[in-house]
Amino acid sequence: MTAISNRPPFRLAFVASDRPEAQAARRRLAHIHGHTPEDDADIVVALGGDGFMLEVLHRNLAARRPIYGMNRGSVGFLMNDYSEDDLQERIAAAEPATIHPLSMRAVDTVGREHHALAINDVSLLRETYQAAKLRIHIDGRTRLEELICDGALVATPAGSTAYNLSAHGPIIPINAHVLALTPISAFRPRRWRGALLSHHAKVMFEVLEAEKRPVSAVADNVEVRGVATVEVTEDRTTSLVLLFDAGRSLEERTLAEQFAV
Questions:
Q1: Residue 130 three-state SS
Q2: What is the pLDDT of residues 109-151, one digit of tens each?
Q3: N or C: which end of the chain has fewer CB within 10 A?
Q4: Catalytic pick from 50, 108, 121, 220?
Q5: Hey, what domains does the chain have and what are their CATH numbers?
Q6: Catalytic status, residue 245
């Protein structure tokens, strides 16, 4: 099942990261398949790595155009293999993955509110040599009175294989309807490894001793420094569609990642 209602030939917009190989690929593909301005395209073809894919997804949050990525970067978990042949047919047969971003509402220590969306994760990180002290509330109930750590994060299923995995968080199937709450270098409680939460959960981080132990909040590429509280929820009103080659769906990639040795 494809994520778009019309059939090929699709109007394709080719966008690329600033890596030389990505720019060269954009020029070749535009010459072979024709290029449509991004605002008029049916499909956006993103050429680069996962970081560039996040940029393209954020850029298309309002338009909600399907994104088909091809790897011309270093990390390509969200990308398809690069090929210049049969592109229209590959896209027509592609399997869609619908993802929902996280909504972050951060209040800094002087009372200013900051809002951002995150496709991968919202993370809290200590700003100085001193560990952060966080209190964690889930749906209005205090679940962890004090976490002493380098930080903590909430990850979407799509983002569970990114920073969350590096912090030893769980890999989440794309359709699992759960979020990962993962500590980053927890000192106390030392054995707490995080939690899996319903995608309906409202997570609130309270920064303890915020003046002495300043903390930043980062929603993908948006950073807010000196936060006092951070609320994180899934934004079910916003949908993004990624297209993956047949047999290489995001669900399959996530499953395969759990058996990688």
A1: coil
A2: 999 999 999 999 999 999 999 999 999 999 999 999 999 999 9
A3: C
A4: 50
A5: 12-99+239-257 (3.40.50.10330), 102-234 (2.60.200.30)
A6: no
